[in-house]
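Thread: "does anyone have the structure for this chain?"

Original post by V.I.:
We have the sequence but no experimental structure in hand. Need at least a predicted one for the grant figures.
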Amino acid sequence: VIKIARKLGITSPIQPVYSICLGTPDLSVCEMTGAMSTYANKGVYIEPTFITRIEDKNGNIIQTFTPKREDAISEETAYLMITLMKGVVEGGTGSSLRYTFKLSNQIAGKTGTTQNNSDGWFMGITPNLVTGVWVGCEDRSVHFRTTDLGQGAHMALPIWAMYMKKVYEDKSLGVNTQEFEKPRKELSVEIDCAKYDAQHKNEEIINFDEFNQ
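Reply from O.Q.:
Generated one for you, tokens below.
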């Protein structure tokens, strides 16, 4: 897990413990946004860059800056991750983007909530714009009283939704509602659940209760 995180541009310390899968490391919004952008960029990590060029008062370019680019994961893996996170929006914790904020374009996303509702996250991915939202306080003792109020879906996601509506309204930004592009090479796994069930209907069903005896 740590090796993959490093490939995705995460530089903050990560302890090699089982709870990594729960999102326990302290990461910055910049790191998370850069990592999530890898999925939209078909597996290529592009280092977030705040300044692309410096000009003098006459418009002459003094210096340009090119972000670092590295192949981090395969295009298929990136697409599969996008597909999984689209499920968050279609029927998971991010579904209010559909029924409350009425955003109908393709969106992949991930909500996040820490202990005691101290931090709320929403990472939103569209084909040509990835944005991360964090709501919290440097002092973790400052938090919402309940998860209903303090979860990422309720305190970070609405910020992302209202922001994206403004982005789409401003046509000069060039951010449109295009769809995620599927890899040209055929996927090695079936992502349509109905087709998968049909293909494996004759396989032996594993009784997981046997492992609990």
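V.I.: this helps a lot. Helices lie at 2-7, 29-40, 75-91, 96-99, 147-150, 152-155, 157-169, 193-199.
O.Q.: and Residues 79 and 113 are 25 Å apart (CA to CA).
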